[in-house]
Amino acid sequence: MSEPTDKDVEQFWDLVEEVINLANSKTETLDPGVVTSALMQATARFNAFYVASSCESRKDFKEDKDDALSRFTGDYKRRLAENLEDYIENYKIYMADDQGVQE
Fold first, then answer.
1. How far, in Å, CA of 74 to CA of 68, rounded?
2. Which pTM value belongs to this model?
3. Residue 15 CB partners (closer than 8 Å, separation 6+)
4. What does each of the 103 residues of the chain score in pLDDT, given as a tens digit?
5. How is residue 101 annotated by DSSP?
6. What distance in Å separates the CA atoms of residue 69 and residue 7, rounded to the nearest whole number?
7. Mind giving me the DSSP string for 14-77?
8. How far apart are CA 44 and CA 31, in angstroms?
């Protein structure tokens, strides 16, 4: 796999921000728990599509399933851990708009 270009990286972060902005806007009318569950379902569904579309046959797809599960769950766990640590380090900044934020 080739290294991502600056344009690829920029497009990646633009898409991340677009999805986060959509999720944030939905919390105006929906509980944040509903929004996060919907994002997780959409991610799981799209990841299944991504894996299926990269396989040449249903047989290959079935054979790749366990590896895909391992890769995606490992990647998600790493990214979640990084973001939780980021929120711990920047809690006062990120949560400044919330009422009654305490250390």
1. 10
2. 0.82
3. none
4. 578 899 999 999 999 999 999 999 999 999 999 999 999 999 999 999 999 999 999 999 999 999 999 999 999 999 999 999 999 999 999 998 665 555 5
5. -
6. 29
7. HHHHHHHHHHHHHTTTS-HHHHHHHHHHHHHHHHHHHHHHT-SSHHHHHHHHHHHHHHHHHHHH
8. 20
Say how many Å lie between the first and final Cα of the chain, rounded: 43
Name the CA dihedral angle for 53, 38, 29, 95, rounded to a multiple of 10 degrees: -110
Spatial distance between the Cα atoms of 95 and 59, rounded to a whole number of angstroms: 47
Cβ atoms of residues 47 and 68 within 8 Å: yes
Rounded Cα distance, 90 and 96, in Å? 10
